[in-house]
Automatic annotation (TrEMBL):
It comes from the Bacteria. This is Transcriptional regulator, TetR family. Keywords: DNA-binding, Transcription, Transcription regulation. Residues 11-71 form the HTH tetR-type domain. One of its GO terms (molecular function) is transcription cis-regulatory region binding. PANTHER family: HTH-TYPE TRANSCRIPTIONAL REGULATOR BETI, HTH-TYPE TRANSCRIPTIONAL REGULATOR RUTR. It comes from Agrococcus baldri.
Length: 229
């Protein structure tokens, strides 16, 4: 039986174990990683581990939850800097890519969760989508985006961010391995192209980030009127 830390020192110890687990699981994978290696990396006595986690699986599931909480906070903090939905999308994606560049383990841990802890993986994605849907629903009601289905759009846009992050954060060059180095964020020209795509998909392009459309007909559809929304 484990319990939440009751002291500041206990919170710091648990945080050290989670940080070490993030590194070890990313480097070795769940099956190869061991509790002894994680406690060694955290510089914590192995017996102390069981004050906070019941097993390696318990640690893994809590790590997925911890990464989820932190990446959602990074996205929310970024989106909050936008004064409308177009700007919120841009800054929310920027926050996501900055987090994944700093914590590339997010990708491997979540993908391994499909086999190790499928419920944790599903919760990870559903929690992100829940927050995304709320923002899109409000934007739709305010006429800031086109008449789209917020749930479908949330899943689709989450996929856009995840794949762009995989290609340009984890694999910045052709020589990088499957999980890259996490040493770079998305190049600005790639980021701008992706944001322009997202804004067109949502039917909103802010004046200061407007991207020229390839044809006149496309311009008409890229910026819907209030009647269209």
């Amino acid at each position: 039986m484990t319990a939440e830390p009751r002291t500041k020192r206990g919170e710091l110890t648990k945080a050290k174990l989670l940080a070490a687990a993030e590194q070890v699981f990313a480097e070795q994978g769940y099956q190869a990683a061991s509790i002894s290696r994680i406690t060694e990396r955290a510089r914590v006595a192995q017996g102390t581990f069981y004050l906070y986690f019941a097993s390696k699986l318990d640690l893994f599931e809590q790590l997925v939850e911890d990464l989820n909480r932190r990446v959602r906070a990074a996205m929310s903090d970024g989106a909050a800097r936008g004064s409308n939905r177009a700007e919120a999308e841009r800054e929310g994606f920027r926050g996501f890519f900055a987090f994944t560049a700093e914590h590339p383990a997010l990708y491997r841990v979540v993908r391994e969760a499909e086999h190790v802890a499928p419920g944790a993986m599903r919760n990870h994605y559903e929690r992100i989508v829940e927050g995304y849907m709320e923002g899109l629903t409000r934007a739709k009601a305010a006429g800031e985006i086109a008449d789209i289905d917020p749930e479908v759009a949330a899943w689709a846009l989450m996929g856009v961010g995840e794949m762009i992050g995989m290609r340009y954060v984890l694999w910045p060059t052709a020589e990088d391995g499957p999980y890259g180095t996490g040493a770079t964020t998305v190049p600005e020209h790639v980021f701008d192209e992706m944001v322009a795509f997202v804004q067109r998909a949502l039917g909103t392009v802010p004046p200061h980030h407007t991207v020229a459309a390839p044809a006149t007909d496309d311009v008409a559809t890229a910026t819907p009127t209030k009647e269209d929304a």
